[in-house]
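DATA SHEET
Item: assembly model
Revision: 1
Owner: S.N.
Input lines:
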Amino acid sequence: MRAQLAADFERFGRELPRDWAAYVRDAYRIDLGARYLGVELPHPIGKASGQLSLKPEQLEADAAAGLAFVVLKTVIAEDEHGTRQMAAWATHETRMTVEHRRARDGRDGWTVTWKGRGWDRSLAEYCALVRAGREITNAGGPLCLPSAKYHLPPAGEPFAEAEYRHTTRALADAWGAAPLLLEFDFSPTLAGDSLADEREQVLRWIEEVPAQLRAAGVPLRLALKLMNARFDDAFQREMLRVGSASGADALVVFNRLWDPERRVACGGWDLSDRNLRVLASRGGERRIPLIATGNITTGRTLLDYASHGCESAELHTFFQLPLGEYPAAHGSRTQRALHALVFDPADGVIAGMLGLEQRGALFRRQGELRFIDVSARSDDPRQ
Ligand SMILES: Cc1cc2nc3c(=O)[nH]c(=O)nc-3n(C[C@H](O)[C@H](O)[C@H](O)COP(=O)(O)O)c2cc1C
């Protein structure tokens, strides 16, 4: 199988077939099947919300590459009069810089420096993107779903209920057949905002946001995308605990770190190290499905997140590297990234799962290794 993997790596570097997940199942007896908010996916790799999911053309390229899901850029909620309490997040900024970032332990990684925030056009235009995404999904493409940031009040003040009601209903209308699938973005810039200085305030948001959204009266499956707050690991675990009991259906763990010197959100190995450390040390609270985000640049890192209960993974930075950084010489960035993540003979998902099998840490069922079993090992308290 190792020889076959080396040959496939070489071959698919020239052209990655769209149904590569089916090929992996046939050729390696590895079922990469994964889940996002209860939806069964052919494999765990999706695109995180951001500048790479603003236009239907980007979604079409992702469909051609066989990506499993795409979270659309975060829209800033508004009420029926167009008022947005979080208007400061709807800024227009096009300049992004893909940079090397050295981690504390010296490892060299990547980060994208960008000072923009949320969707900077109207809610109606965002709903048109949601509709375009639904068409792509219904035509056999990736699951494309919206992401939104709503009003987060200072302590003692009420939530702007009209924003929650109006925007959730508008998204549900654009989405069509219930339930609406939605990611709620608490970050990334929030971590650098003075509003996020109060621990109790942040925990209140996480606790109360699901009920605020559900009060809109539309059937909803909700993923809360938690940030890396500016506090210690214990606080990250506290956010996990509160998020697990909040009535959300899944948690995305965890958005980018905050660089206080440059005053920007950042990634790289410090981000995945911190996220994995927090997940490894969390307590035995009620378990909720997790979705990974943060410096996933190899299949091995993806499997590390899976072994802490993540059922799928959403990436941004790895879809933005300079072309020469991918081993494949052909294809879109999404195709090249998938090729490396899955087929790399040393660090890809296939190599990693075969390695887990060899070490007796993963077993075949009816002859197949299953990705979802990697996450079930840690997530199911009965095992
Ligand atoms: C340029 C850029 C824009 C982003 N915009 C959003 C956003 O609008 N909403 C959101 O939830 N996350 C946003 N993110 C965070 C990513 O979705 C992702 O969770 C994070 O970057 C960690 O993954 P990565 O290390 O693979 O980049 C953005 C990230 C980048 C680099």
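QC remark: Residues 48-51, 73-74, 96, 112, 114, 118, 147, 185, 188, 225, 255-256, 267, 271, 293-296, 315-318 surround flavin mononucleotide (CB under 6 Å).
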